[in-house]
Amino acid sequence: MCGIVGYVGSGDAVSVLVEGLARLEYRGYDSAGVAVQNGGGVETRKLAGRIAGLRELLARRPIHGHCGIGHTRWATHGAPTERNAHPHIDCAGTLALVHNGIIENADVLRKRLEQDGHRFGTETDTETLVHLIEESPGATLEERVIAALNHVEGTYGVAVVAEADPGKIVVARRGSPVLLGVGDGEYLVASDASAVLGHTRSVVYLNDGDVAVVTAEGYRVLDRDAREQERAVDDIEWDLDAIALGGYPHFMLKEICEQAETVRSTLRGRLLVAEGTARLNGLNLTAEQCAAIRRIVIVACGTSWHAGLVGRHVLEELVGIPVSVEYASEYRYRRQLQLPGTVTIAISQSGETADTLEALRAARAAGSTVLGLVNVVGSTIAREADGGIYLHAGPEIGVASTKAFTSQVVALLLLGLYLGRQRGLDAEQGRRLVSQLVRLPELVERALAVEPQVRALAERYADARNALYLGRGANFPVALEGALKLKEISYIHAEGYPAAEMKHGPIALIDENMPVVCLAPKDPVYTKVVSNMQEVKARGGRIIAITSEGNGDLSKLADHQVAVPASPPLIAPVLTVIPLQLLAYHIAVLRGCDVDRPRNLAKSVTVE
Ligand code: AGP
């Protein structure tokens, strides 16, 4: 998903735009570009590749102005080339536009526009927008943009500048996040807050259907009929340090290593020790509503879906309600069989994942109460849900999600505790879980101490071509998560499987070249996992066992053992995932992969 920025003020627009794009690069890094008004017209500079390359290009061929827009791309339509890079310009070269999203009826529009004589220079869906605006009626740029968007199907966060409208940026949103940064005599536009933090902490989140007109004097928000709209100004709670590397070589390692603090932050102010329950003010559920819940449906994608699978164990165990966990992208197109008393929980780090957002909307349309379990404050899922839980894990910049996963599991434990205490979990059981959660940050700290051992393991397996991850119960999703981490940053093919399921097929893959990571903490299914490890051993597989501290009886079976602090089964996934995050990280570094910007990926998937 792309990142868009805009700036208008008295400063040098280009330096502000490039600084903002650098902060948004985790959203997409296939190509980049800027366009500025320089009093004589609109000038653009763009290239295939990273923001660093754009900086060099601008150093060689500088452009200047006080008003401009910029873009960093995750290619959806048209290869990641300079030609397809944004900004896109109209036939006359007087309009420039950047876009995040997908124009679904681009082919139809393009055909008509070409018949009307427009000349297209790219393979992108986006270019249709700039030609549409070029030919749309209207005395002002905002009138022309509104007229053009009335023909568009799909999603967009779009920003436009025009030679005829100096000192003005017109912005529009449907489906893709856009916010305005409210500065002192200067205004910014961005896909997320990290791009404006260097200038202001005051932001205005645009809603779907909003069109904003931004000048150095201020901004106006209009609806589709050009009527003025009121939008609140919010304050961002974190600062630039939170999105700085802080001396780490990669954001991913920083985010793995700060998990004791981020878990502490997710728990902060939410544990009621004496009452043995949790305080979740943002949930917006009355005691009656809690009592009336008959079914919980979790919708999510990727790592968040894995956290949802752990959440099923937690909620079924603590609350005693059936829980189903759905791939949001599949769920949204299935027939909605909504039973009364259904609560749907959308889990999303970014709060902007299109499939999860649409699954939430589908569940609501079918009569479900919808909750959000989200990290990014003010994101669309957070604003559209009836209530929810913020993770407070701080910005997650590394594309491979790590600290969000552990905080998602902790938030689900808090939700299980809260609902459980409303539905029969007694105070003693509640107090026991509270005391276990109070100790959790310190256990995470101790689990992180395995890093040197895991780094040595990574050297042993960095050349692996495949890997298998096995787990049972709440650790099966951890196996899936470990495999996903390795896949997405080291490009090694890896699969996670329920340990018992291995016999029904994947065991055929096992030989002396196959590293098999087995999650074997001391829990009620431990002996079952040990039997599965014996099956792997019998086929010559290389076993890396993730087990509990003090568990000495795997030395004969496992080639390598990594021990994390012992903990109750429902809490264990927060600890057992850490060696897997580190293993993927160190293997990727040893293979020379771009850990924070893995190929073909982006941090939040705002298109279908
Ligand atoms: C995980 O490392 C990936 N970045 C990806 O699978 C991610 O979890 C997924 O896109 C969901 O994102 P969300 O939590 O922001 O909705």
Strand content: 15-25%
- Which blocks of ≥5 consecutive residues have pLDDT under 50? none
Mean pLDDT: 95
Major β-sheet profile: 8 strands, antiparallel
Give me the count of strands: 27
Ions, cofactors and other bound molecules = 2-deoxy-2-amino glucitol-6-phosphate
Note the total helix count: 18
Question: Using only CA atoms, what is the Rg?
Answer: 25 Å
Distance between the termini: 10 Å
State the helicity in percent bands: 25-40%
Strands in their spatial order, largest beta sheet: 3-2-4-1-10-9-11-15
Question: Which term fits the overall shape?
Answer: globular
Task: Report on the architecture of this protein.
It is a single chain. By secondary structure, the protein is α/β, with parallel strands linked by helices. Helix content is 35%, strand content 22%. It has 18 helices and 27 strands. The strands form five sheets. Strands 3-2-4-1-10-9-11-15 form an eight-stranded antiparallel beta sheet, with helices on one face. Strands 5-6-7-8-12-13-14 form a seven-stranded antiparallel beta sheet, covered by helices on one side. It has a five-stranded parallel beta sheet with strand order 19-18-20-21-22, sandwiched between helices. Helix 17 (526-538) links the parallel strand 25 (515-520) and strand 26 (542-548). Helix 3 crosses helix 4 (127-135). The longest helix has 22 residues, at 427-448. The chain is globular and about 75 Å long. The model has no long low-confidence stretch (mean pLDDT 95). Residues 301-304, 348-350, 353, 356, 399-401, 488, 604-605 line the site of 2-deoxy-2-amino glucitol-6-phosphate. 2-deoxy-2-amino glucitol-6-phosphate binds next to helix 9.
